[in-house]
Amino acid sequence: MILTDTHTHLYLDHFDNDRDEMIKRAFSVGVRYMLLPNINSDSLPGLLNLHSKYPKNIFPMIGLHPTNVKADWEEEIGYLMKQFEANKFYAIGETGIDLYWDKTFIEKQKASLQFQIDLAKTSQLPIVLHIRDSFDEVFEVLNKNADQQLTGVFHCFTGNLEQAERAIELGFMLGIGGVLTYKNSGLDKVVATIDMSHLLLETDSPYLAPNPYRGKRNESAYVRFIAARLAEIKGLTVAEVANITTENAIRLFKLPLS
Ligand SMILES: [Zn+2]
Question: Which pTM value belongs to this model?
C-alpha cells in the first residue's frame, strides 16, 4: 500500500522538536510521497530544505497563500519568481481566495491568484487552490481562465455536490482531508457520488487533524485515517484507496517514481 499526502506543511515550527521522527512515522505507515504547499517568502527556505533532505519522497510547490496577500504582495511574488527560476517545483500553490479571515485585500488576492494561474499555465504545472468563504469568487476567476492547460486541486474540499462537479468540469481534482472523518460534515455524501479518479488525499498538517485526533496537531501519518474513512464510504479496501489516490497524485503532479 502506498499513501500520498498531497498537502502537508511539514516545514512549519509546529514540527521543530520532532520533524524527522514525524516523517519516519509517516513512512512506517505506508506514506511514500508528501507534497509541500508554500505560504510565503519566509516559509520557502525550510520547505526547500526538506526536499533536499528527502528528495525522493518530499516534493516542493511554490506560491503565495491568499491570507499572506497584503499591500506588498508584488514584492513577495518577485522573490518567489526568483526562487521559481532557480529550483524545480511540482505545483503552484497554495494560492486561492480567503474571505474568512480578512476581506481587505480581496482585489489583490484576485490579482495574485491570476498571476499564479498564468504562471501555472506557462510552466505546465498544476495549481493548488485554498478556498475559504470564496467559492463564487474563485469560480469567477477560473471560468475566465479555463482551458486544456489549466488543472490542479481544490485543496481541503468541503463544498457541496454542485461545487464538486463544477470543479471537476473545470479540470480540477478534489483534495480530501480530515473533515471527511468528522461526524455530520456532509462530505461523505458528496464523495460517495464522485468517481475515485477525481480524488486526492491530504492532511493539511499541522491543521485539521482527522478523527481520532481531531483538535490535536496533525501529521502526515494520519492520512491513513482519511484513507480508511474513504474506503468505508466507497466499499473499497484501504490499500485500494491508497493506491488509486497515489496514482492520481503521480499523474497530476508528474512525480518522479522512487
Ligand atoms: Zn495549506
Answer: 0.97
